[in-house]
Each structure stands twice: as structure tokens, then as C-alpha cells.
């Protein structure tokens, strides 16, 4: 059975699909702000109604926070679960928007048509690519793709407090052969991409205490040890002159890139000058012997996310402070063990703390890196589907940030996830004037139709 | 004429004198915080009224900042000028205070009675020792000591921006034969002391800017430079492994201690174990080849008084910040030139700032060290007076803090200054729970009566 009639139907009905997305975008489902609780509920209801119209067995499922949406197409065959989120980021600063963020419209721009509004790219536009693909499929074939589950949450932008409990309580219902996640982007706005490497994250807060109170730097300066200087020395020593991290054993479990992946990344011709130039930088600042893509995708990091101590207000205070603090985080890759690294880090710091100072630590989460099993044939099938749609070889890529849902699917439900998305780098997600290119929406729908076709073929 | 009746009067009226000090301490005259501008004004008014009641020709004198208080007793004879400051340090962290810093009280402690509250020791309690000495003198003798000027500022804790212009504009009025400054302490809380060496102070605020906005540490971590790490490296490099400061030319003008002063300091048998032990420390942290007294009196320092950047609130935010900041100060000695050191420091930092980062500086005052002319017979007279009052030989000592006013009196008005004060090492000035011993206040008043007696004797 050819997928072409479904693709033709998608092309014909794009105006109607766009209108449906605009209707969903008009609902201000800001999950982090309790004032918008009813709107989150309304967004869930809207989607449930739409999925019911399409023939899904769909329901809104209560949680202590915002509701989940769960829908099943029924039938036999490999069980696929699609994940997206219907909640959106806050819109402040509102004055930087060119129009009401919840009065979306299709706009003509020099770079083509865009759908402008909060949530257009993150993640309502993306989740609707999948639903619209199902709609065209149903309209052409008379029935939905078989054994499909749609699972949408409304708390992704506010830390997903209800997600793991809900997944645990409904594990049998949600456990599928593979999860499909649509919350990522094209590589450099042009190459279709499947994310197969996600960095883990380890957070540590460190406090150096010296004197038992703040001192006058005139009275004690020269004789009393300064915890800010101690902390600065520790931070300065965490990297060597080549940018390598000096915590003992830190690189245990950091794999070298397989040659084929390295070759694939070289073909991507990552424009690091533009990537850094867009934020006012020019020189890749990581390990001297690594490429920029390795620095952000496949190499671990150590960064200071915050530092404070002494007097930080206006003017000057000649205090010799009793304490200094820093928040330090590590991005992890491969099989680096966050708990081992935490212990090694703490022991390493302890060896650097001079007499008269004490160090204390507060841990802030520890998640390992994620590595998808691309040996599962579904990955190559999806890559083929994306390559056909975009007429550019799709790539397996890394992601420097952590996308917790992928880890939860693995740890809670024991299933792998395939991350495919159509956002572009200039979509301004989490910022004013968020947009989603009509091309992303249109070819995103077509992409899912092709992926579903490959994955559900007997 | 014996001074004894004045001393007796001081003893009898100590409760009333204490009440007056408590009233002044209730005025939160924090000069560095613009929110307290009116309170600084109110403190000046309070003192002017008190001095007028005493028979001084007193007035509040406007400046672009907080007002000065100037008062004259009139008459002939050697012209003595007394200096103090009515402004106080900020009180943060407020939660470490055992009571409202501006609700002072006389407390019984195991070590005797203390006056507790912000400014009790620095400097309202100290300046009131002189005013109370004048009051008792007037009440006993019927008139104030002759040809006395009282000169109080309200910006000592915020860099004294108006001081030099005011002194220049009013040079004829303020120029005296000798200045008396009450803003220092007893040596080791027991030996009366006249400070003859004062360290200078140079303050610098440094900002490192990297990216043009805060970045997500997942997306950019590894590739984008982190300004906190840059700042930490700079701070760590400002001292070598022996504790020497690495700014080029920094030690130009730093004298070795004369043999006789070194001998006198050895006789003081400074108990550095107690000095550091009282604040929870044990090891002198300065230059490895210097004694603890040298570290705090006769050697220059470089300290970090504050540092901040990135996320410093509760929890964790994986931000890669665009900026990092530090407040850095230098204590100066001998003939070190603060302006030359400022330039050398800035140029030195500039050589350490990597590509993609910018550094900017904000100066916070620059005062050279001071050295008094103890050959003036007034010094020996005052030392006799203090020795009689405290029944312990008074000493000429150094002072680790900078008391810029002493330098200004010399450079702007061409007069020497004699620094006598009664603070104790555990007064917690600039810290929570500041106090002034009632003994300091009481014997301080008596000391000034004796000093005035010696210096105004025909």
C-alpha cells in the first residue's frame, strides 16, 4: 500500500490543519502559573475531543497537577507510544512580543510562512504534526494506524511533577515497544535528525567556610584566610590547561566516538561560527583536542552555574567573608556514573581545602547520560522515512541538554525512545515571538505519515 | 588645675551619657544605602542639637552626599580638631543578629556590661566619648575646652565622596594644629594605643562579560566560555604559592620595618593564636616569610570582598551565565601609590582575559597609607595621659585598616593626626551583634578628659 495518497491528503488539507493548530494555540495553557490552571484543563479537553472525533479511545486523566491526555487507536501489531506536551512557557516579558502571544496567526515573512504564537513550536505545533498525520491516514485508509497510544502531559514546562507517578500507576497501559517523542528540532534548521545521545546531569552545591563570622578586611586582611580565594582556586583547578577536567576518574566510561558516527558528524558540517556568533562568542571553549560538536554532544563538561560570597550589593564593603558558595554542574556522557563522580568530586575537593577551612556539599540531582539502541531496526526505518521526506540524509545526532522524558521511558517503563522533531534554531522557544515554520508543520505531518508507514508495515 | 573633678563628674553621669549614646544608636544612619538618606540627616541633626546644648557653635553643613557636622568651642590657644563619623555599616545578614541592630541596649555579659547595636563601637560610641568628655569638662569648669573644633562626617562607611571637596572648601576653618581621631581600638583589648601607621586602601570592582545573554548549559556547555571560570582563574592567580601578590610593581614603595619598631612590636608579644582563634582560625594566612603583626600592620594585601554571578537562589538552574563580578581590595603600606597600583592591576587583569571575554572596572576609592610624625611632643603627652588612665604603658602601633581621613588631614590640610580609640577586638564592627564595652565608653571619656588636659595645659 503506497503512502502517497496520505501525503496528498496532507497537502490538500494543510489550511484546515493550520486552523486547528491556531485554535489550540489560542488556549493559554501556561502550566507553571496557577492562574492558568483552568486553561491547561481546557487545552486537554480540546485535544481529547479532537482525538475522539478521529476515532481514538481518548480521555483526560486527572493528576495532582495538570491532567494527562491518553488515547489508544486499538488493534494488534507493534505498540507505538507518541509523547508530546500541551502546556507552554510563560510569555513575559510581554512587551517584547509583536502581537498577543495567544492570538496566533499565519504570517508571511521574508523566510517564508510562519505560525506565530506561544507554543507554536514548543510543543503544540509539534504534537499536532503527529495528530494530523493520523487524521490524514484515517481519512484515506478508513482507519487509524493500529495499536497506537498518544500520551500528552501538561506539566513539561513546570518540572513534570506528576509524570513519574502517573507512568508508574499506568505502566501496563503505557508500556509500548517504542516511544516516539516530538519535542526536538532539525539539525541546523535543515537536516532531519533523530536524537540518539542525551547528556546526563550532576549538580553539586559547594560551601567553603573559614572564620566563624565575617571579618573586617583591614583588621584581619593578610592574616585570615579568605574563603572566596579558596573557592576561586578550587574552581580554577577543575580544568587543566587543555580544558580537561581534573576530577580523578572523571573520564571513566566516556566512550570515543565510533568512526561511523564521527564521519556522519563531519558530514553535517556544523557551523560552529554561527552557533557561537549568535550569542556573541567565536572560539569553542572546551577541550582543545575536540570538535565543537563533540564539545556539546558527546563530551562531558564541568561548569559553574552560580557563585556568591561576601558583599555583593552596591558600593563597597571591606568585609573578609566567612563563607563562599558555588553551584557546579557536570554534563555526563556514555556510561559515566553520576554517583561515582559525585564521590570522586567531593573527595577531590576535600584534598584542596586548606587548614582552617571546611567544605560542605549539597547534591542537586544526578542522572546518567542516555544512549539509544540504534541497532533496533525501527531507527533505520525512521531514518529512511525522514530522508525520503526531506530529501537530505537524516542524521543520528546528540543533544547537549537532558530530555528527562526519554530517561523516564527507559527507567520507569523499560522502553526505548526515538526523538524526532521539526523545530528550527530560530523558533524562539521560551522567548518572545515564538514561531513554527509552516514548512516544519507541513513536512512534519508528512514525516510522521512516512514514519508510521515504515514502522507499521507488516 | 586638677582633672580629678572632671573625672569624678564623668563617673557620676555615666548612666545619662549611656542613654544619650543609645538614643543616637537608634538612628539607622547607613550611609552606603540610599534608602537611609533621611536617617543620616537625622543623625547629623541629633548631634548638632546636642553640641549646641553644650555651648558649641554647631551646624549641619550640606554636601552632595550626607551632611557634615562642624562645631567650634571658640577661644584662643592651640587649635585641636576632633574627627569621628556618625554613619554606620549595613546590617546584613540581619538573621545573624540576636536583636534589632537599631534597638540598642546596655547588656550584662559574662565579660561585663556592653552597649549592643550597630555603630556602638564604629563609630558613634567612640565619637560620643569625646563629646561626653567635653560635657563633663564644661559642667565642672563652666566652659568648654578652648579653641576646639569637632568635625564629623556621615560617609566614612561609603568611601567619603564629599570629604575632600568639603575640606578644601573649608580649609581655613578646619585647619588646626593637630587632629584627634577616635576610630581605632585598644591593642589586644587591653593596652591603650596611639596608631602611627595606617594601611591605605584601593577598591576595584571587576566584571567579566562573555556571551551576550545567559545560555542554557546543556545546549552550550562545553563550547561556550564561562565567565565565572575566567574570574576564578584570575582571582586564583593574584597570589603566588608564597602568598605574594602577583600584580607587577605591586611591592614598589613597601618599606622594611625599622629595627626599633620591630623590637617594640616583639615586646607587645602579640598573641596571634588568640587573635585568630577568636574567629575560629589558627594559621596566619599571609606571606609565608612575615610575622602575623606584619601581615596585619605593615604588609600590603589583596583580598576579595565579594563575588557573584549566575544563579544564586535556592535549587539549581543550569545556566551558563553571561557575566561574573568581584569586588577586590588592596591594603597598602609605605609609599605604595594607589593610582599606579590601580593601573597596574587593570593592565595585569587585561592580559589574563581570554578571547571572547571583556573586562570592565569600577574604582571604589584609592587612599595611600599614612605614617605619623611622633616627634611632635603632643604624641608623648597623649601617651602619658593614656598610660595614667589605663595603668598600662600606652603603645605606638600600626593599624591594618585604612583610616583615610588621617591621610586627607595631612594631604589636604597639612596637619598631623593622632589616632586614639577604645574599641576592643571582639567588638564585631561591620558584623552582626556589634557592641562597645561600657568600660571602653567610660574609660574612653575619661581618657579624652586627660588628653585634653595635657594638650591644652599652658
Automatic annotation (TrEMBL), chains A, B:
NCBIfam families: PRK07907.1 (NF005914), PRK09104.1 (NF006579). It holds the Pfam family M20_dimer. It comes from the Bacteria. Keywords: Hydrolase, Metal-binding, Protease. It comes from Acidimangrovimonas pyrenivorans. Coiled coil: none annotated. This is M20/M25/M40 family metallo-hydrolase. Residues 198-352 form the Peptidase M20 dimerisation domain. The keyword Protease applies. InterPro entries: Cyt/Met_Dipeptidase, Peptidase_M20, Peptidase_M20_dimer.
Amino acid at each position: 500500500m503506497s503512502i502517497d495518497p496520505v501525503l496528498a491528503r496532507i497537502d490538500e488539507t494543510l489550511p484546515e490543519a493550520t486552523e486547528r493548530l491556531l485554535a489550540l494555540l489560542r488556549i493559554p495553557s501556561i502550566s507553571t502559573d496557577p492562574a492558568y490552571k483552568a486553561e491547561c484543563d481546557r487545552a486537554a479537553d480540546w485535544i481529547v475531543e479532537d482525538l475522539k472525533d478521529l476515532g481514538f479511545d481518548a480521555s483526560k486523566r486527572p493528576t495532582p497537577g495538570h491532567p494527562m491526555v491518553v488515547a489508544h487507536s486499538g488493534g494488534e501489531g507493534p505498540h507505538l507510544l507518541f509523547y508530546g506536551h500541551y502546556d507552554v512557557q510563560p510569555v513575559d516579558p510581554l512587551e517584547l512580543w509583536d502581537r498577543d502571544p495567544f492570538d496566533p496567526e499565519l504570517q508571511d515573512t521574508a523566510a517564508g510562512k510562519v505560525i506565530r504564537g506561544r507554543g507554536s513550536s514548543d510543543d503544540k505545533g509539534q504534537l499536532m504534526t503527529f495528530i494530523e498525520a493520523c487524521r490524514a491516514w484515517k481519512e484515506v485508509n478508513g482507519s487509524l494506524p493500529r495499536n497506537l497510544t498518544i500520551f500528552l502531559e501538561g506539566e513539561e514546562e513546570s518540572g513534570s511533577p506528576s509524570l513519574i507517578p502517573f507512568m508508574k500507576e499506568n505502566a501496563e497501559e503505557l508500556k509500548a515497544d517504542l516511544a516516539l517523542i516530538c519535542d526536538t528540532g532539525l539539525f541546523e534548521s535543515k537536516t532531519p535528525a533523530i536524537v540518539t545521545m542525551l547528556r546526563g546531569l550532576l549538580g553539586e552545591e559547594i560551601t567553603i567556610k573559614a572564620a566563624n563570622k565575617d571579618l573586617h578586611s583591614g583588621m584581619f586582611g593578610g592574616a585570615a584566610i579568605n574563603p572566596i580565594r579558596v573557592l576561586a582556586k578550587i574552581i580554577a583547578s577543575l580544568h587543566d590547561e587543555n580544558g580537561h577536567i581534573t576530577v580523578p576518574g572523571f573520564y571513566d566510561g566516556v566512550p570515543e566516538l565510533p568512526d561511523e558516527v564521527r564521519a556522519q558528524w563531519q558530514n553535517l558540517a556544523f557551523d560552529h561560527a554561527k552557533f557561537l556568533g549568535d550569542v556573541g562568542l567565536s572560539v569553542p571553549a572546551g577541550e582543545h583536542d575536540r570538535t565543537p560538536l563533540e564539545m556539546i554532544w558527546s563530551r562531558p563538561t564541568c561548569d559553574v552555574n552560580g557563585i556568591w560570597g561576601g558583599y555583593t550589593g552596591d558600593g563597597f564593603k571591606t568585609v573578609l567573608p566567612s563563607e563562599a558558595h558555588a553551584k557546579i554542574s557536570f554534563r555526563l556522557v556514555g556510561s559515566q556514573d553520576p554517583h561515582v563522580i559525585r564521590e570522586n568530586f567531593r573527595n577531590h575537593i576535600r584534598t584542596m581545602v586548606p587548614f582552617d577551612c571546611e567544605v560542605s556539599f549539597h547534591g542537586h540531582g544526578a542522572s546518567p547520560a542516555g544512549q539509544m539502541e540504534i541497532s533496533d531496526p525501527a531507527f533505520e526505518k525512521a531514518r529512511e522515512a525522514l530522508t525520503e521526506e526531506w530529501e537530505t540524509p537524516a542524521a543520528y545526532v546528540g543533544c547537549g541538554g537532558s530530555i528527562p522524558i526519554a530517561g523516564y521511558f527507559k527507567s520507569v517503563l523499560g522502553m526505548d525512545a526515538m526523538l524526532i522533531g521539526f523545530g528550527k534554531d530560530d523558533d524562539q522557544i521560551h522567548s518572545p515571538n515564538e514561531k513554527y515554520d509552516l514548512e516544519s508543520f507541513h513536512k512534519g505531518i508528512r514525516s510522521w505519515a512516512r514514519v508510521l508507514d515504515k514502522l507499521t508495515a507488516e
